[in-house]
Design a protein that fits this description.
The chain has 185 residues and is mainly α. The chain is 64% helix and 10% strand. It has helices at 7-22, 29-39, 49-61, 84-96, 107-113, 120-148, 155-183, and strands spanning 27-28, 65-72, 75-82. Strands 1-3-2 form a three-stranded antiparallel β-sheet. Strand 2 (65-72) and strand 3 (75-82) form a beta hairpin.
């Protein structure tokens, strides 16, 4: 039944699995979105709010998450927790599916591909802006990495943060090398 789940569904199950280790209350769709924006965005597309709610509904229908409603004043809040079946589906997916090779979806590289239409100055400005954006994103991820520290309970998220930091450094080096090649034209 769960074999037709999207990678986003499995990512949400993973976020709920992390929460299950530290809380018995579950997460709202909004809280999942915040977690996705805080963590997934560095290495996976953070889903839109509407996608989170549609995936949560689908996961609930499949019995992979449990939805609990709680009334707070006039408002009803729905919280979600991963079920045993959800944990089984997630660990099964992790054990049996092969990760796809990442697709490079790189707006800077796409524009560079058509660089002859932009001109040297425009290309250099684009690379300068990209390098600044890299530095900003790297600083954000460094803050996340500091927050994770060297705790055993978040060892693997810390390794992913280290991977992301190495990626940003590599991108910075590529950007600098490309800028020099453009300047040498």
């Amino acid at each position: 039944m769960s074999q037709d789940l999207s990678t986003t569904s499995y990512a949400l199950l993973g976020l709920l699995a992390f929460d299950a280790r530290t809380s018995e209350h579950g997460l709202t769709g909004y809280e999942l979105k915040q977690r996705a924006d805080f963590t997934l965005r560095f290495y996976w597309t953070s889903p839109a709010m509407s996608q989170i709610y549609s995936e949560l509904s689908r996961l609930a229908r499949s019995g992979l998450v449990e939805a609990m409603s709680a009334r707070q004043g006039r408002r009803t809040t729905r919280r979600y927790r991963i079920t045993d079946a959800g944990t089984e589906a997630l660990t099964g997916w992790l054990a049996t599916s092969e990760p796809e090779f990442p697709v490079l979806k790189h707006p800077v590289a796409l524009r560079l591909l058509m660089g002859q239409l932009m001109g040297r100055d425009a290309l250099v400005r684009m690379l300068d802006a990209y390098e600044k954006a890299l530095a900003d994103r790297q600083a954000e991820l460094e803050a996340v990495r500091r927050m994770l520290a060297d705790r055993d309970d978040v060892r693997y998220p810390a390794l992913v943060a280290d991977w992301g930091l190495a990626h940003y450094e590599s991108e910075r080096e590529i950007t600098e090398r490309t800028r020099r090649a453009i300047a040498d034209e």
